[in-house]
Structures are given as structure tokens and as C-alpha cells.
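Batch job 17 of 40 flagged for manual review because the log was empty.
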Amino acid sequence: MSNARHILFLVPGFPKDENDFNCIPPLQEFLIKFQQYYSELEISVIAFQYPYHKYNYKWNDINIFPLAGKNNKVKKLFIWLDALYTAKRIHKIKVVDVIHSLWLGECAMIGNILSRKFNCTHICTLMGQDVKKSNRYLRILKDCNIKLIALSKNQSKQFFKLTNRNVQEIIHWGIDDQQLIDSERDIDLLAVGSLIPLKNYSLFVEIAAEAAKNYPEIKAVLVGEGPELSKLKKLVKERGIEANVEFKGLLNRKDIFKLMQRSKIFVHPSLFEGSGYVFAEALVNGMNIVSFNVGYAQDNLKWFIVNNEEEFFTITKKLLNEKLGFYPVNLFPIEETVNNYASLYGMN
């Protein structure tokens, strides 16, 4: 068994308590499982923006140090200084061996400074839209000595295209197997995510409308909140499918899993994903997926990758007419994630 080590996580946000299921679910799963495997490891977390209070607290026996930045641009510099000060206090109590930042942004920038001061390894996990041309930190941190981790091959390729630099590893955020309940699959189409233009949920509505021509009783459910909500509801009304499409709003993860276990086809029309953890969630809950080649996407008997909108319509309508299997598939087991990061941390 390896000696106990101390890992400092730098993150934009962290669950305010153990019931805050929707705040970075893959990180939550990872930390809980990692502690089970490596109970001798000490973990500390500095959360820059969320929660919106500055009281240190415990989350599953992990020490959390919130800075309550609240995404206030005026306070940015003060939050960065506070992060440096807090990290130095943590390091003084117990030496930090590894810094792990999430998102190639302000957390990675501060992590880069701290890793030089502490003379320790700095790992940064690329999380999604930080691998886009608009991210100024791509230039700021271009030549820094950071071990960069991508979540998928697609994300790794995008990062190389923008920076001409390879990541050190590709490590998927993994997921635990789920206990499937014996429920009726009474929902034909399900979509889950933030209702923003990038997620392209107008295509989900159009697919439901097209399918309703042949299947008048089709049931489609959209879970999520965002600025596109009113536009999507208007589109549903215009297509005359108000009886077919249900908007569920924001749900906690447990309720989303219950919906997944009632659903047949997971329709994810997003135009970009760094990972798309929701893919892993849909598969372990027995669903079949139709998506573009984004994030985690990979060929599988239950995963249909399309190249354009026309194929999206064709494949989805075809699946609605077939007898589908609803057995769970775990392409991204959490154990692999834990083992891969343990190697990077020097735990094995």
C-alpha cells in the first residue's frame, strides 16, 4: 500500500452539501469512489465560485474551502488572491503533493502558480467548453508545465487543433453500475441537458414532430432549464405536438435516472460536448442513444452516431419501429477512472 498523500482540488464550484446532486456529478462519483479505494489519501477542495458562502465544511469527510466568488467579475482578482492564501494555509497544515484543477481556466491558472510554489505535480482535467477558441486561458497557459487530461478522443483532437499540443492522457469520467427496476418503457424519446443554443434541442422537437406523423401517441420528454425554454415551448406549439412533448424542468439526478429507466431512446442533438457524461448515465440505465459524433461518442450496439440532421431523423424513426433491448451497458466504469488518476497521483 502506498503512503498517504494529499491532493488539492481547485474547482469553480462544488456541492454545497451531500444532497446537492446536480453540481458536477462525475466529480462527486469520482471522489466518493476514490476514497473507498484509497482511504489513506487526504483530499482538500477549494471552490472558487460556488457555494455562495465562505464557511468551510465537510462533504463525505472531505474538507471543502469555498470562496463564494458568485461569478462576480469585479471580485475575480480578490478570489484569486484568496485562493492562493487558502492553499498556502492548507499546505502549511499538511504538505500538498498534487494539485488537480478542473477546467482550463482560472483554477488551472492559480494551480500553475501554486504548483511552482509547492514544487508539486499539477494535473488539469479539460471539462468541455474550455476547449474552445474563445477561451483566453488556452493562450495564457499554453507553455505551462501542466499535465493535461482530456475526457474523450473528440476533446483531445479539438485541443490539439487549437493549441498544436497533445494532452498527456485521455481519462473518461466513469460511472457506477445502476440497479435497474422492472419498469415499463413508456417514454419513447428522452433528452436531458441545459437548454442553451449549443445543445440544439430545437432538433429534438423537430424529431418528435416528424415521428408524431407516424406515431400519433408518441411520448417525448425534455429535462432541463435554460434560455431556450420559451423558444422550445413555442416551437412545440407551432408543430402541434403539445400532447406529445413534456417539459420536466430541472430535476435531481435520482429522478433523471428514474426517467431514463422508463425511456427507450436517448436523443442528444448537441453540436459540441467535451465529454457528455449524460451518455454514460443513459447507457447504464438501459437506454439506446442517437447523437452526433461528440464527446464520448463511440460505436456500440446501443449507440447510433449520425453525421447530419437527416440521418438523425432517419435513425430515430427507424429505432421507434424496432424491438429494442434495454439491458444496461457500462462503457465507462468508474473503477478505470479511479485507477488511471491514482497512477497520475503516484498512488500505484
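Reviewer: the log was empty due to a logging misconfiguration, but the result itself is present. The longest strand covers residues 42-50. Unflagging and moving on to job 18.
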